[in-house]
Amino acid sequence: MHRFSRVMILGACALLAVLPTAATAGGNVKCKLRFQMTGWSIFYKESNGSGTIKCSNGQSMAVKLRAKGGGLTVGKSTIDDGHGDFSGVSSINELIGTYASAEAHAGAVESAKAQVVTKGDVSLALSGTGRGWDVGVAVGEFIISRR
């Protein structure tokens, strides 16, 4: 299963090639996201979760996460240990909003997730591990809002 998960994660990276390349954001503040998400999919995909964004300038924010979209996807999974790295920004407030997403996910008992989302000049690379069963590739929206 680990080999299959790696193939799916590499597939997500390949999806990056079809997304518009985000320009470098105007700031030099580095921000990271730690999160948990639970979701399901049968062609349509929906996930909800929460997390915390922490930035190199000391700013932090509790956030709600929602992903929705569709593609060749089926399953139900929970990501317990999610990590994300944002491109450089000037303020944590630039990170709130709706991002375009591409995602590959695979798992049976153990689940792996790779996703890249973009919003204008801001991009976010996500990865995580968890449990459940799922397989597929999807495109859609990834929404970050204040909790």
Number of helices: 1
Write down the overall mean pLDDT: 83
| Beginning-to-end CA distance, first to last residue | 35 Å
Order of adjacent strands in the largest pleated sheet: 1-2-4-3
Task: List strands and helices in order, with pairings.
Elements: H1 2-16, E1 31-55, E2 60-86, E3 97-119, E4 122-146
Antiparallel strand pairs: 1-2, 2-4, 3-4
Can I get a quick summary?
This protein has 147 residues and is mostly beta strands. It has one helix and four strands; from the N terminus they run αββββ. The longest helix has 15 residues, at 2-16.
Question: Please, could you describe this protein's structure?
Answer:
Helices cover 10% and strands 68% of the residues. With 147 residues, the protein is mostly beta strands. A hairpin with a 2-residue loop joins β3 and β4. Mean pLDDT is 83; it is low at 1-10 and 13-25.
Task: Record keyword descriptors for this entry.
single chain, about 150 residues, 4-stranded antiparallel beta sheet, about 10% helix, globular
